[in-house]
Write a structure and sequence with these properties.
CATH architecture of the largest domain: Beta Barrel
Shape: globular
Number of domains: 2
Distance between the termini: 17 Å
Radius of gyration: 19 Å
Length: 254
């Protein structure tokens, strides 16, 4: 498990293709790998990878299967690219973000970048059906960073978008400052939100049967998803920082 607090930015030092998998050699900042053993997990742009070999104090190799290469942005990585990284959480560690599994659900694209004073805003396009799990003030993991959704919008076809606001410190600690319009991002839905939404949908399907598609169509005409029947409170942050959105530190990765 990971906390969603990006600890460093690593650099792709080498890429080696083998039958059925690709091996990445990553170069880390000094001290990042201290105490780590072969077999330990590292979140690389949100993808949980296992260290298979160490090269000195600050380099490690990771094997990535074809399915992961196809599902995530790792398949497009080249030598010199930069990656958000976080070591696996330990007992007793502060969880400043939210629990993240490192199992990416889908790739999203940056639709728009804005730069208001001392802030950096990313609008991220979300394909259907994943938008049903995205709510304002809710948790979401993007390239391994725990973020708070500042705003969200839905389209009639089930797709949509959400925005995150990033402060200068977040840009310094992560790769988000390099992401322009069209850039691909790894997204992991917050699992509690997913379970709640799917439970509501399953209950409605059980109760309404063939009437559920008609209800969904009616709600889509009004730009509403079935998940709105939960009251909009699924997976939302209720701490005092969230109330300061969109300019507070709660709206970005640490």
């Amino acid at each position: 498990m990971f906390t969603g607090i990006v600890q460093a930015v690593a650099t792709v030092a080498a890429v080696t293709d083998q039958p059925g998998l690709r091996t990445f050699t990553l170069s880390f900042p000094p001290g990042f790998l201290e105490g780590q053993t072969v077999g330990a997990s590292v979140a690389c742009d949100g993808v949980c990878l296992t260290a298979t070999r160490h090269q000195g104090a600050d380099r490690a190799e990771f094997d990535v299967m074809q399915q992961s290469l196809a599902l995530t942005t790792l398949g497009s990585f080249c030598v010199g690219d930069h990656i958000n990284v976080e070591r696996a959480a330990r007992d007793g560690v502060e969880i400043g973000g939210h629990p993240i599994s490192g199992h990416v659900d889908f790739q999203a694209r940056v639709g728009e970048v804005r730069n208001p004073a001392n802030n950096h805003v990313l609008r991220i396009d979300v394909p259907a059906p994943w938008m049903r799990y995205v709510f304002p003030k809710g948790y979401i993991a993007v390239n391994g960073a725990s973020l708070t959704v500042a705003e969200a919008g839905r389209q009639p076809d089930g797709s949509g978008w959400f925005e995150v606001w990033l402060i200068p410190e977040t840009l310094r600690q992560t790769t988000f400052g390099d992401k322009g319009a069209g850039a691909a991002l790894n997204v992991e839905i917050e699992r509690g939100t997913q379970v709640m939404v799917d439970t509501v949908r399953a209950t409605l399907e059980e109760r309404l049967g063939p009437l559920l598609p008609a209800l969904e169509a009616l709600l889509r005409e009004r730009g509403i998803g079935v998940e709105a029947l939960t009251g909009g409170q699924v997976g939302t942050r209720t701490d005092s920082h969230a109330a300061l959105l969109p300019t507070s530190a709660a709206a970005e990765a640490r």
